[in-house]
Amino acid sequence: MSQLPFSKDAFIESLLDPARLLPASARTDHKLVSPTEEIQRFLKKDLMVNKLNKIDQYLWLAGQPMPAKPLNYQIAISREIAVDERIDMHMVWEGSRRIHLKPLPQYLLDSQFWESHLVCKAPCCASPGEPVCQGQARSRELYKCALGLLSSYMALVQFESDFSIAQNYRLLPNTITWEMWLKLNQQLLKNNVISPGNINSRYLFGELRLSRLNKIYAIRHASVLSGYQLTYQTYGELFYDYLAPLTAATIYVALVLTAMQVGLATDRLGFNSPFQDASYGFTVFAILGPLIGVLVVGIIGSLAFINNLIVSWKFQRQQFARYELSEMRNKLP
């Protein structure tokens, strides 16, 4: 069975009601519910990194298999910290030098909460090689995801300066002190509960690059329009992202054509058949290449628009169908 990662007296007292440790509300099927109604369902959504686990074997293309750099380093290289409650975006950074970080949930610092909702008490949890039922397997994975998130903050908050940054961005609960954090880290390291076999495989990697995750998803799961997590808020941003490299390539092509034109004006190259053939081929490419590129970008934009339109239409139908069903249930005696 899995073990409690730290002793009951290591960190904070387990005096809070679970409702005080959880968010004010949660989303289930696009509607607001109380997280205390189905705590296990909430925890799976809050902690499980299913999207990243689908591409486990390719994560080395998006990041290095090592703990994340501490927060002081993130600030030193001019990365902007974006507080993001989505677990799939935790420690994911964008080309605009912005890194997403999920605040450490307060319930992960409460030993009683671990015992009640996270520690897998089945004997099979101690032996991953043995056959387990699906429910026990999910409990084991939830435990590993919780330990992984906790271990990520051990890497992010190494120094007291990191602790101050984390407190300023509300990444750590303001009820804890540096001395408490030191004590917790010492116990976790001593108990070796964050070894690679105890944490989810996603947390064997630190920061992951979003652009590469999008490419991996586009190739591996054929999701060109959605990717892992596209950041476009408008179609203008989508066109800019695709057309900017095309514009740079067009400028380079123009420089090459100018150089070829000068070369053709010389006696040495002007009568050189291979150079003339190359100039002819590149001229045709320079005419057709940008046109084809713009056409492809236009097709991608059109497909994205049509896809979003269809998804929005289906979503509104499903939502209003749920609303009508809910009203009918409320009217029943």
UniProtKB/TrEMBL annotation:
It comes from the Eukaryota. Keywords: Membrane, Transmembrane, Transmembrane helix. The keyword Membrane applies. The chain crosses the membrane at residues 242-264, 284-310. InterPro entries: DUF6601. The keyword Ribonucleoprotein does not apply. Pfam families: DUF6601 (PF20246). This is Subtilisin-like serine protease. It comes from Penicillium egyptiacum.
